[in-house]
Structure prediction request, 300 residues.
Amino acid sequence: MRLKYCKLPQGNFGDDLNVELWPALFPDLEAKRPDVWLYGIGTILGGTQPDGPKAVLGSGCGYRGTPRLGDDWCVYWVRGPGTASKCHLDPALGLGDAAVLYGPLHQELAPVQGRIGLVPHHKSYDSWDWDTLARDAGLYPIDPRQTPQQVANALASCERVLTESLHGAIFADTLGVPWRAVVLARRFNDFKWQDWLDTLGMKLRTAEVHVELHRTLKPGKAFTNRLARWVGGPDERNHLRPVRAATPSDVERVRQDLINIASETKSFVLSDPAVRAAQQQRMREACARFAADYGLTFSA
Prediction:
């Protein structure tokens, strides 16, 4: 089979997990049914898709329009009920994100006392030095461009985690590390977060910094951002659009935002362990059906 996922040049641990997870669960995956595309972890439903049969194990939508799943699709489960609804599927197929099946997320924790992690979205790393800013705010920076194992280990070393990355929250939650969603840029995708959280019976509650930080900003972009701030609605988070390259005062304000957000210990959350366990069991059952249908070995 061929893996269908978002492969980024700089790397992104949530997407790159596909390369580690699926061959570990199905050791003979690459040797059998080369005509089939396996859709796994990621917001990859929608837009132009390759020809040939496709099997879906936990994918979500939220980018590139409404997915159209024809007769060449076999859906075992999707990321959540929101994706199921958009794809006109039974809501019961919205089981959750397959990342919870990743073995290193079931390790025993050895957190460093007082350590609070920060996991920005991978795109946020393109526009600012979050490693330095996190340390200046007393936080432990976790680079999402590292490998899944490295990110899992870093998260396991934390007592709590602020995360702009959805998979930062999924990894932390599976590990049993309390987490809080933090918005560092207006690209934050509420739909895919709530899609996942619905599978755990939770609601999305975010904390925001005051402005996106960018090293540079072209005059044309600054103008359109000012215009969007004026005409746009609050639901689009246009108030976060930068209208200039970040100044020292902007950086200091965001640093204080992070300090304040991290100090609100009661705002960090964790799903019910029993719900997590039941979710993972349903995914394993779906994996077993998938393996039987395609003649694969399943290493449960």
